[in-house]
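Summary for the funding panel

The consortium committed to producing paired sequence-structure records for every protein in the target list. Below we show the first two records in order, beginning with the earlier of the two.
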Amino acid sequence: MRPGLNPAHRPAGPLGLAVMLTGTVLDRKTGAPVPFATVAVPSRSAGTVSDAQGRFRLPSRQGETVQVSSIGYEPVTLAARSAAPLAVHLVPAAFALADVRVSAQSQDPRRIMKKVIGAAATNYERQDYTAQVYTRRRITNFDTLRNEVEYVSDVLDPAGFKEWGGGFLMMGPKQTHMVREKHTVVPGQEPTDYSVYLEPGHGFFTAGSDPVRISPLFKSGTLGKYELRLDSIEQRGGEAFYVIRFAVKRATNRATGMYQVSGYAGKVYVRQRDYAVVRYEALWQEDTVKNNAIARKYHGTKSSIARLYTKVFSDHRKAHVVTYQQGANGRYHVATSVAQVVSVGHVLGGNPFYAQKSCEEYFSPLPQASAAELLAAKDDPTLHWGKFGRRRKLLTGRCSGKATNARSPWNRRRNWKSVNRSTHKKALFNV
């Protein structure tokens, strides 16, 4: 297997030595960090997104041109010269709103979101859709990089796919995920399985990378469960965009699509011309109170629940940023999905941890003919475990490639995680 699957990491000509470009993106006017800014090398289509504190990290080469941009700011271009940390100051854009028709009706965020939902069938892919995905994952505990892996996959979102994990009892349409190549950058320093990548909210699997398709925020039946506010009307590239802030009123499963989440809030950027979401930013908060109560209740028992709840948390939250790109057919698809999570706490009866994880995904549409190949791949026994099983195989090499038994501990753990983390556990563990 050749090292480095990402074309962005391959030399693009006679450039200087490789450097790890690091820094912080700041608002020049206020000095505040600019979260989720795009840091890119245009010549190689390489890039990353700054975290919630504006910090970024990007492999580069001396002399390469790097562009830093964020909606609402003028882009900045700089040259990669050394590994010394940078402070990149973005100037707020001076928006000329003379050409934008603004009325009380057009500024109603709920009306705008209803138009987004109504236009989704026209704006976004709803039939079988295939894409190639480059994924890079990192796990850090305190200041030690524990694991880093990258892989290239083909994915199929079937017509009707609109629920994470297939919806109720996983009976609905589900994404097909086929790993083509993988490269372990930093081998895991301890035994790992799929569970190390399970996080609250979306973003750590390709099936959760498209919020417009799967989030209750973009469904008319659950839109009323959110507080909405029009943050601003911005112009970029001669086009106007609505920036709408959202926050779930009560973080139930029906409102968020997830269990044991205590908060879900963020912003969506909507193109005024066609009411398409072009960027999505979200912050998920894990319900640490409920998690800690369950962990302490069953600690020291022989219950299966005790094996699943081994940690208590003082903090557990995640940022997820998605950008959409319009294809040649006029429909939008996910271009990038970047998720970053921090969890702080300790293992019951064990050591403390300060863990940070990231999952970067970059999508490229595939020809429609590939859909038939991916659909046929469902019959391949090595894919019966879906993406979780493939990731387990990539990380540990313990996946046998045989069809799984529904009563196996692996399936019971997977189903329990996907369907419910609380109310169904008795029925599940008594299978």
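The next record, for a separate protein in the list, is shown here:
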Amino acid sequence: ADGTRGGDKMAGIGIRLRRWVSFDGIAINVEPDLGHFGGIVPCGVSDHGVTSLVDLGLPVTMADLDLALKSAFQDVFGPAAVPAAEMSRKAG
């Protein structure tokens, strides 16, 4: 991979609001088997395909991505990241 491909989808972000509650998520293709995406039209854009970080020449692991996302999140929202299990206990 030379990292020069353009227009292919590598990630997606979703937000849903329902009854005053927000749901959000992020998906980033790190190193999937891109053959599984052959029948997918990402976001309805048929003239582009799907790619991944590794396919673009960025040899990262899920652990690398996890650390980078946590760091970026903390840069924006502050250093107090709380594990999901702890949040579940607090929510009761």
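Regarding this second record: Helices lie at 62-77, 84-91. The first helix runs from residue 62 to 77.
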